[in-house]
Specification:
It is a multi-pass membrane protein. By secondary structure, the protein is mostly helical. It has 7 helices and no strands. The termini are far apart.
Length: 197
């Protein structure tokens, strides 16, 4: 059975689609630019007085931006066509499995890093004693990014939404790019500490 053309699966004229993709692109771009500026110029720390307050401020902003992105993602899917062939028990189980695995990666990463380092505390000079190598970091280099992507994928499957799958693809691409520059920069921070020691 052939799939219908892409234009009938995704309504590209719907503004909520582009708003969702915009959120997906903006969030990691913004938090990485802000965090790298903080590392170089200490702008947030000077503004709020201490690195811990700075992490709390940036972490709150990242969390709220993530909630906004998730709401817009759900909103975008409501305004898009559904694909009835995805409405099967196998697809539903795959969606639930994807979300469960995604949550496992995100929550276990947060547990291992703690809130300070989950929200880029190392850019504020709040470095961990050593690199985390326990699960999930022994399975994936960037488990939070992969976990988040799995959550988007599972949600799109449960909503039987081709547009949701397209937005998930944009999440995967943006996070792949973010992993490159965030991972390199974080590595540089810890390498500089080792030189000083």
């Amino acid at each position: 059975m052939a799939l219908p053309p892409l234009a009938s699966l995704v309504d590209f004229t719907q503004p909520t689609l582009w708003l969702a993709i915009g959120h997906v692109v903006f969030n990691p771009l913004a938090w990485n630019i802000i965090a790298q500026n903080e590392y170089r110029k200490k702008t947030i720390t000077r503004l709020v007085g201490t690195p811990h307050r700075g992490v709390a401020l940036l972490g709150t902003a990242i969390f709220v931006a993530g909630l906004s992105r998730d709401l817009v993602f759900a909103w975008a899917m409501e305004h898009q066509p559904k694909l009835d062939t995805l409405d099967t028990p196998l697809v539903k189980y795959s969606g639930y499995t994807s979300i469960a695995l995604g949550l496992l990666f995100v929550l276990s990463s947060t547990y291992r890093l703690g809130l300070v380092n989950t929200y880029l505390g190392d850019y504020f000079g709040l470095l961990m004693d050593r690199r985390v190598t326990e699960f999930p970091f022994n399975v994936l280099e960037h488990p939070m990014y992969y976990g988040s992507t799995l959550n988007f994928f599972g949600t799109a499957l449960l909503r039987t939404s081709p547009a949701g799958l397209l937005i998930t693809l944009s999440v995967a691409i943006v996070y792949q790019i973010a992993q490159g520059y965030e991972g390199d920069f974080t590595g540089k921070i810890y390498a500089e500490r080792e030189k000083k020691e």
